[in-house]
Specification:
By secondary structure, the protein is an alpha+beta fold. It folds into two domains: 100 residues, Phosphorylase Kinase, domain 1 (2-Layer Sandwich); 203 residues, Aminoglycoside phosphotransferase (APH), C-terminal lobe (Aminoglycoside 3'-phosphotransferase, Chain: A, domain 2, Alpha-Beta Complex). The chain has a six-stranded antiparallel β-sheet, with helices on both faces. Strands 7-9-10 form a three-stranded antiparallel β-sheet, covered by helices on one side. A two-stranded antiparallel sheet has the order 8-11. A hairpin with a 4-residue loop joins strand 5 and strand 6. Helix 4 packs parallel to helix 8 and helix 8 packs antiparallel against helix 9. The longest helix is centred in the C-terminal third of the chain and has 28 residues. It starts with a strand and ends with a helix.
Length: 311
């Protein structure tokens, strides 16, 4: 349901109306808006002036400034647009961290089921590769930086910590030492390859959205996190590694297995921060517990020592 500016009654509606009033291009323009579902960090809105072009407005959620650098996210959004796989960036309010995009018509967010289709997987690999090859961002933050930052933040907000946290961090330290010794391939990464951050149209063309966590990071982490989220079979993962890198070899696969564990540890720790500070209606503790369990599966895997040696 659309709401006209000036008619909002809830706190969220008053917040979005105050933000819309600060966008220079909309001064004096009658607007209406409605919420867009999806996302677990922000409030998203579709805004219309009754013309052909609608806009998508992303409003930062409470506490997200702890782990999102909004200027870096906007830089990454513009890179994605420039390489042909991102939505058009219309405006950015740095004081609020609010991004305004052209509303993408004819595309929808994917689900995990969409990635059962080889055409979607292949197009998504090409989109990710184009973004990863788009040139360095100003912000470098590796997965190790993220985990270490989140551990400190959990302590600062009084978030919940698993009983085996010392073991998890020992494994993280082992992986960090091995990956740094092998050398990192730092490239722009989304660092958030959930299914909902890929859009597809009727022809399975793919667009990338949501670059809030983007930074220069280890290239293989982009695939590792994506594989974590999609639960692909081993054969599909190998085919996608070959599509992305032009070849498959055991060293790349080992690298991705190690990074999968780190990705789950990163997001599990992030979830414990959100569990303590977020006002969104989402069970962050359940989400984080699930991520911790998946990280343990790989940290306890009998091949863990072998993967580290193959890096």
């Amino acid at each position: 349901m659309w709401t006209n500016v000036g008619e909002g009654t809830s706190a969220a509606e008053r917040d979005i109306e105050a933000i819309l009033a600060r966008v220079p291009r909309w001064q004096g323009v009658p607007l209406r808006y409605r919420p867009v579902s999806g996302g677990i960090s922000n409030a998203n809105w579709q805004v219309s002036a009754g013309a052909a072009q609608d806009w998508f407005v992303k409003v930062p959620g409470r506490g997200t400034e702890m782990f999102i650098t909004r200027a870096a996210a906007n830089e990454a959004s513009r890179k994605a647009q420039a390489c042909g796989f991102g939505a058009e960036v219309i405006d950015f309010l740095p004081e609020d961290g609010v991004e305004v995009f052209a509303f993408v018509e004819g595309f929808r967010a994917t689900s995990n089921l969409d990635f059962l289709r080889p055409s979607v997987r292949g197009n998504a690999v090409r989109a990710l590769r184009a973004f990863n090859d788009s040139g360095p961002l100003r912000l470098t933050k590796t997965v190790f930086d993220m985990i270490e930052e989140h551990v400190d933040q959990v302590a600062a907000v009084g978030g919940r910590v698993p009983e085996d946290a010392p073991f998890l961090m020992r494994r993280c330290a082992e992986a960090k030492a091995a990956l740094l010794a092998s050398g990192l391939d730092l490239v722009p990464c989304m660092n958030d390859t959930l299914a909902g951050n890929f859009l597809i149209d009727a022809d399975d063309r793919v667009m990338l959205v949501d670059f809030e966590y983007a930074s220069n990071n280890e290239r293989a982490y982009e695939l590792a996190l994506w594989f974590d989220e999609m639960a692909f079979s081993d054969s599909v993962e190998r085919a996608m590694i070959e599509t992305y890198f032009g070849r498959w070899d055991p060293a790349i696969e080992a690298r991705i297995q190690v990074l999968k564990a780190l990705a789950d540890l990163k997001w599990a720790t992030w979830a414990m921060i959100q569990d303590a500070v977020s006002l969104l209606d989402f069970d962050f503790y359940k989400y984080g517990t699930w991520k911790h369990r998946r990280a343990r599966t790989l940290f306890h895997h009998p091949d863990w020592p072998r993967w580290l040696k193959r890096l």
